[in-house]
Amino acid sequence: MSAGSNGRAPTAVVTGAAGWLGQNLVRALAPERERVRCLVHGADDAPLLEVVGPSIEVVVGDVRDPATADRLFDGVRAPAVFHAAAVIHPESTVRELFDVNVGGTDLMLDRARRADAARFVHVSSNSPFGTNATPTDRFTEDSPYDPYLEYGRSKLEAEEFVQRAHERGDVETVIVRAPWFYGPYQPARQTQFFAAVRRGRFPLVGDGSQQRSMVFTGNLVDGLLRAEATAAAAGRAYWIADAEPYELRAILAGVRTALEAEGLAVSERRLRLPALAATVAEGVDRVLQGRGRYVQPVHVLGELGHTIACDISRARAELGYEPATGLVEGMRASVRWCLERGEQL
Amino acid sequence: MTTIDTDVLVIGSGAGGAVTAFLLAQGGRDVTVVEEGPWIDPDAMEPFSLEEMVAKYRHRPAAALGSPTIAYAEGRCVGGSTEINSGLYHRLPGYLAEAWRDEFDIDEFGPDALDAYAKRIEAELAVSRLPGAPPPSSALLERGATKLGWRAVEFARVFRYDTAGRGVKQTMTRTLVPRAVDAGATVVPNCRVLRVLRRDGRAIGARCRRTEDGRVEDLDIRADHVFVCGGAIQTPAILHRSGVRGRVGAGLKVHPMIKIAARFPHPVDHGGVPMQVITEFGPNLSIGGSASRRGQVAMALAESSPDFEEALADWEHVSVYYAAIRTEGAGRVIGVPGLRAPVVTYRLTEADLSRLARGLVHLGEALLAAGATELYPSVRGGPVVRRPEGLVDWWSSVTRSRANLMTVHLTSTVRMGQARSRTGTDSFGRVWGVRNLRVNDASLLPDAPGVNPQGAIMALAARNCEQFLSEA
After folding, report:
1. Where are the alpha helices (DSSP H) in chain A?
2. Three-state secondary-structure class, residue B260
3. Which A residues 79-98 touch B at CB under 8 Å?
């Protein structure tokens, strides 16, 4: 292991580097590492990252591709690997979830082993754990797996590969489980979410007392860096989220507050949907996914009726993780990022 | 009509039936074995030859219907599939024994209990490792794995070696079938079971149809106890034809295989089946070698590309390898009265297809690392891959319409266990609802074992025989 005394490897490899989390993570790594090898899927993504700093080295390719994996790890010794590449909303079929989330993880673990990676930090999700039984229930790291549909199954299998690689001594791993993100470099779907809330078109399902953990991307990056640097985290898994889960109605209120604080008028309209609507959507989603089909709005609505909430006590105790940014502050940063890019909210 | 009386009727003579006949005859019971296929001298044919395939395989378009279809092979001869398989031997992985015991509530079942029986079987069959260096087809897999840093092991096989190091596969016709006969069992080949006969809720024998020298004769065999050991396709079909339903036939599991015909710059051996297996991606994905005589090479090449003539002319440089998976999806066997062949269906999930694609890509990596120059995948339209940069295209080639899949491991159609709503028999193979009727073959395994199931089937069959002898 060539990690420095602070536990941070001079070289980092980041997959999914052009993604929502990846963009934030790369910006944190770039100034403090000698080399940050970034995997991006599209050639158009390369220039976006190359401007970040001289330590950035971009590799364009497919995370399922052995030849791309060889280029990604070519000449890299004992890196810290941050595996953030995944598909959460496939374009049309659920097959992609398994090809990328399972196949990509399998391949990256293999190449990390061959490169003698100092550590493999794997970005996972709440979806292997499903939904909480009640609004006050919390997932801990010891909660049983109960995957939510096909994305949950794909992320669960990926976690199993990561755990296996650690247990058999291939590479030292840490699993970081993150819920719903918010923060700069957000994808179009999050911008649409803001716009819908602003226009009063985003539905509050049921009474909105269902709770959701969320994580500000800055908080998550801090958690990932701690997962890399904490020796005792090897082989462990951690929930990384904001300090407490939010009620769904508080999330929508927080977005409205952030929009107004950044000078945007917010509609007085409030769209409400009965809890039944989410239940029906979930049923439809299950049928579609059972046939291999994926329809994003149906999936999102189906999930909205549930509480998905985690307890970050272990990360606090073992990683020294303390989320620095809260909901309104983080949402304001996101809104500002959108406005700076001239996006329509 | 001829009638034969016996104490125990064993239907089928493969890994399950041969163990049952041998142990019960040895235990002093009067045993009659009926086998649908012929009794062929094991020395009469070259192993893995086309001649052998014609004589010993079940012949009809055998494919599990579904999208994609999965072709399957079954032995139809005395000794069943032990006569035609690769002879790789593996005990049931302990974690599966535990998981199955818990999920299906199987009494007196677990790694330790089964291992005791496995040891006896291993001593009986001469399970062994290769005495010398592996043949090139096998060494190539090991070379590829070593270059990539992947775990690979040489699997033990049911082979006996002479002093010159020549190995002979210890099929049932070489071992337990003659030993059962020595212990007093009668074997009736060329005799197909039409249905199990029942009276007052118990099995009393079977109605059979024997073909001898072109003469067809119906035959009733009266028995106090009936063991159905026809394998995971025929056993549920026989039970269905006999009016036994419930969970029988549901839950078929197979190990679908996707293959690559790999061309090397040097000749490769073709007489045997590689014994090296890449275990790096286990337990749900394994990589190994297939029979690669000229016929198998031709079939494998033809599945991939219309332009295979040139490679086929060079067939001595080509060897066939596979990636096999455990599946999330399952199938079903339905025996239809009046129809000779049961209807078999199988459903692969998207996750299963993805796993097959992943297996194909990994297998391709290993073969290129081993020095292969051309890879022909069993995918309609290929593409043929010559360099690592081409492997990524296989992710999108392995689709329901283009993947050519086959399987030789078929299990789980009459699952055992006390969880009656999900099983066909109790913990010892006694069919629910019909006294004196037992199943004792691959059908009982609650799930696919991820490895060659012969060892698991034989140990399980031996366990159930001991239970039978202790009680009946």
Report:
1. 20-29, 45-50, 66-73, 95-97, 104-114, 149-167, 188-198, 217-229, 248-261, 275-290, 296-304, 313-314, 327-340
2. strand
3. 93-95, 97-98
- pLDDT tens-digit map of A111-126: 999 999 999 999 999 9
Other C-beta atoms within 10 Å of B433: how many? 13
R_g of chain A, CA atoms, integer Å? 19
CB A108 within 8 A of CB A63: yes
Q: Cβ of A103 and B361 within 8 Å?
A: yes
Alpha-carbon distances of B419 from B42, B254, B337, rounded to whole Å: 41, 22, 28
Closest of A24, A66, A4 to residue A224, by C-alpha = A24
Q: Is the peptide bond before B134 cis (omega within 30 degrees of 0)?
A: no
A296 in Cβ contact with A90 (< 8 Å): no
Catalytic positions of B, please? 409
CB burial of B63-73 (b: ≥16 within 10 Å; e: otherwise) equals: bbebebbbbbb
Q: Is B32 exposed, middle or buried (0-12, 13-18, 19+ CB in 10 A)?
A: buried
Q: Tell me if residue B91 falls in helix, strand or coil.
A: coil
Is B83:B42 a contact under the CB 8 Å cutoff?
yes
- For the stretch A60-104, pLDDT in tens is 999 999 999 999 999 999 999 999 999 999 998 999 999 999 999
Note whether B386 contacts A: Cβ–Cβ < 8 A.
Answer: no
Between β-strands B331-334 and B167-169, what pairing exists: parallel, antiparallel or unpaired? Answer: unpaired
Q: What is the spatial distance between Cα A41 and Cα A64, in angstroms, rounded to a whole number?
A: 10
A167 touches chain B (CB under 8 A): no
- Summarised one tens digit per residue, pLDDT across range A231-259 is 999 999 999 999 999 999 999 999 999 99
Amino acid found at B134: P
Which of B351, B357, B391 faces A66 most closely, judged by CB atoms?
B391
All residues at 6 or more sequence positions from B417 whose CB lies less than 8 Å from its CB, including other chains: B100, B103, B104, B105, B106, B423, B426, B427, B446
Query: Residue A136: how many CB atoms within 10 A of its CB?
Result: 11
- Looking at beta carbons, which residues of chain B come within 8 Å of A106? 281, 358
A191 has a chain B CB within 8 A of its CB = no
Tell me, what's the ipTM?
A: 0.95
Please give the span between the terminal C-alpha atoms of chain B, in angstroms, as a whole number: 30
* High-pLDDT (> 70) share of chain B, %: 99
**Hey, which bits of A71-131 come out as E strands?**
80-83, 119-125
Contacts of B361 in chain A (CB under 8 A): 64, 66, 103
State the Cα–Cα distance between residues B307 and B313, nearest whole angstrom.
Answer: 12
Per-residue pLDDT tens digits for B100-150:
999 999 999 999 889 999 999 999 998 989 888 899 999 999 999 999 999
Q: At what angle do helices B15-26 and B454-471 cross, to 10 degrees?
A: 30
Convert A27-63 to b/e letters by CB count within 10 Å (16 or more is b).
bbbbeebebbbbbbbeeebbebbeebeebbbbbbbbb
**pLDDT value for B61:** 61
Per DSSP, the residues of B135-195 read PHHHHHHHHHHHHHT--EEEPEESEEE-TT--EEE--TTTTHHHHHHHTT-EEE-SEEEEE
Structure token digits, residue A343: 């996006």
Q: For B323-347, what is the mean pLDDT?
A: 93
What are the structure tokens assigned to B413, written together?
Answer: 């159609």
User: Would you state the pLDDT for residue A5?
Assistant: 52
CB contact under 8 A, B350 and A102: no
A106 touches chain B (CB under 8 A): yes
- How many angstroms separate the CA atoms of B379 and B395, rounded? 11
Nearest residue to B258 (alpha-carbon basis) of B309, B320, B302, B311: B320
**Interval B451-467 mean pLDDT:** 96
